[in-house]
Amino acid sequence: MIPLVLAAIFFVGIHFVISGSRLRDTLVARLGESRFRAGFGLLSLLGLVWLAQAYRAAPYIETWGQLGWFKPVALLLILPAFVFATLGMTTANPTAVGGAAPMEQTAQGVLRITRHPFLWGVALWAATHLIANGDAASLVLFGALLLLAVGGTYSIDDKRLRLYGEAWEKYLLATSNLPFLAIIQRRNILALKEIGWRRPALALVLYLAMLHFHKGLFGVSPLF
């Protein structure tokens, strides 16, 4: 279990300590944006591989155990997780790596719902697996990913605020981090036509494919 904890600390730590702090600004100034991204991308890949291998090797230590009643709930929660993640990956977003400056793009489509759709998809996916698995290794792995996803939304906003200043403040006022908050507060509107049907359809296909291949890939069926 110790290797898994160390891997989780490393993976989360490099994002918050290096990428999510002013240390990033210093490194970018010295190395350049492209070199920093390449180096940090390599570190992230190594951390992710370490995390995955440590999780596979970790012993099974039951916490609350697998909850049979939660399986249908998990199926319902994972679908919007796929939708958020897919929309986030296929929508131009100033919060993404290399994204356009906020003054060059208005909040449209899923960005009216949240300016961090991909990370909220990951957060919902991680939280669902954390609850569903009910063991110590899953608590460490999915807890770390949940922390990184939710904390990452604030870290990205801070980085963009340092970079764009007043332009980002205006973007913050027009959008929300928490899904649907800006719409509820009438700072934005829900425009489903801007999202279209192709992206949600792709999310549904990916969701169904994962249900089909989940047991073969991970040894556990989400259906029964």
From TrEMBL:
One of its GO terms (cellular component) is membrane. It is found in: Membrane. Keywords: Membrane, Transmembrane, Transmembrane helix. Residues 4-222 form the NnrU domain. It is a multi-pass membrane protein. The keyword Membrane applies. The chain crosses the membrane at residues 35-52, 73-93, 113-132, 139-156, 196-214. This is Uncharacterized membrane protein. It comes from Methylomagnum ishizawai. The lineage of its organism: Bacteria, Pseudomonadati, Pseudomonadota, Gammaproteobacteria, Methylococcales.
